[in-house]
Design a protein that fits this description.
By secondary structure, this protein is α/β, with parallel strands linked by helices. It is built from 15 helices and 14 strands.
């Protein structure tokens, strides 16, 4: 195919660069143009002149430098698409600070966007050099590529990363089934299964799911609604598998970051931020369902002395092992957290039923305390030697909802006051709020 007239050049070999020379050079486009010896590379300064140029002479690809602050940028990109035609590859190039605007504008007709300065290899990948026949074949058949709407749905799933892994997989597998026109679809990721439609006894199509270079699962399709799958359907499924792998990688990274944000480094226990947030939600539930919540605030007696005598490594071991011992004695639903320094907070709660009339303090908490103090007395600490075995003691305060406080702050304040009473009374004891005795 030729363009005819003055520009008698094969359309597939023509590349149009939009942007003045200084901007193109800053973006790295000059070196890119020089690397395309087999292409006819031409340039215009503005989108308007580029649109006019394309109406006279088609181009196989267009790379446009974008000012994210420009007015009517979306309309300009849409006009560029109309002038370039459906088969041309359009890539936008913008500065890092303009990335949100460039990304939005790309949705009005561009195939891709890059952030400048870019390397030659990155531009070749975006433009599709080296795989032009494949790009042409896929883009000419709408059934063989993910539409903008389909890819947008995958992108929207990033907004759902706070959901449980199972809920996220349910949404993703539903997208794949609808896009590929399958009777049923299934995603299996590290033992978690999400499926839409009937169970798949014999998969018709299957592709691996890869995240961060490792295979983490599989995406399978049952029979197609409209007959046998085409090679284009296979290509689409592979594209979805790649996108889902990336989404799951981001989800995993976000979950790790959230865990780190609410976890104490030394003990591995939940930290102050976590326990305050969780306690607030438990108290809301307790208020609705009328059950009791008891909070224990305790610290290690004379902790600074052990730090001074044996060093901070010993202090870290004491913190870590104290948390471990208390977790062993607690029930599954109770929460043990490091509140700060050598101070710990434990939330005892039981949502199995309403509180009984006249009850005030759970016997479970006192039983846990007795077991914990016994375990602490028997514990050995490597950094302190056998001579210090049984020396560690704790002091604490117990306060219960709803009698001692109706919210997080008031309940913790009462427990803290009881802890101070225990210290003043000689340490190695726990004071129950309202009883004022060990």
């Amino acid at each position: 195919m030729t363009t005819g007239g003055l520009f008698d050049i094969p359309a597939r070999d023509r590349l149009l660069l939009i942007g003045d020379e200084a901007v193109r050079e800053a973006a790295g486009l000059s070196g890119f143009a020089e690397s395309l010896a087999s292409w006819n590379v031409t340039g215009t300064k503005t989108f308007l002149s580029g649109i006019a140029d394309l109406t006279m002479s088609p181009a196989r690809a267009v790379v446009a430098c974008v000012d994210g602050g420009a007015l009517n940028l979306d309309d300009a990109v849409a006009g560029l698409r109309v002038a370039a035609g459906a088969d041309a590859r359009i890539v936008l190039c913008g500065l890092p600070e303009h990335e949100p605007a460039v990304r939005r504008a790309a949705g009005f007709g561009a195939d891709d966007y890059v952030v400048s300065p870019v390397s030659v290899s990155e531009l070749e990948l975006a433009v599709g050099i080296g795989r032009l026949d494949e790009v042409e074949r896929v883009s000419s058949d709408a059934e063989r590529a993910c539409s903008i709407e389909e890819v947008s749905r995958i992108g929207d799933s990033l907004l759902l990363l706070d959901e449980s892994p199972g809920a996220l997989l349910d949404r993703l597998v539903d997208m794949v089934s609808a896009a590929c026109g399958s009777v049923s679809a299934q995603i299996v990721v590290r033992g978690t299964v999400a499926r839409v439609g009937p169970a798949i006894a014999k998969p018709v199509l299957a592709v691996p799911l890869v995240s961060d270079g490792a295979t983490i699962g599989q995406l399978t399709l049952g029979e197609s609604v409209s007959g046998p799958y085409t090679p284009g359907d296979v290509s689409k499924l592979a594209t979805y598998a790649s996108l889902i792998g990336n989404v799951l990688s981001v989800a995993s990274a976000q979950r790790k970051l959230k865990t780190l944000a609410v976890t104490d480094d030394c003990s591995g226990l939940p930290n102050r931020r976590f326990v305050r947030d969780r306690l607030a939600r438990i108290l809301e539930q307790a208020s609705r369902e009328r059950f009791q919540v008891t909070v224990l605030l305790f610290d290690i007696d004379d902790f600074k002395t052990y730090n001074d005598r044996f060093g901070h490594a010993a202090g870290d071991e004491i913190i870590r092992k104290t948390g471990e011992l208390f977790c062993r004695t607690c029930r599954k639903q109770d929460i043990v957290a490091r509140y700060g320094g050598d101070e710990f907070v434990v939330v005892f709660w039981d949502a199995d039923g309403p509180r009984s009339a006249g009850s005030k303090h759970p016997s479970e908490a006192l039983g846990v305390l007795a077991r914990f103090r016994s375990d602490l007395e028997a514990a050995s600490f490597e950094t302190m030697g056998d001579g210090e075995k049984g020396r560690l003691t704790v002091s604490g305060g117990l306060a219960s909802f709803p009698w001692d406080g109706g919210d997080v702050d008031s309940l913790l304040k009462k427990a803290d006051e009881a802890l101070l009473m225990a210290k003043r009374a000689g340490k190695n004891r726990v004071i129950v709020v309202g009883e004022d005795r060990a």
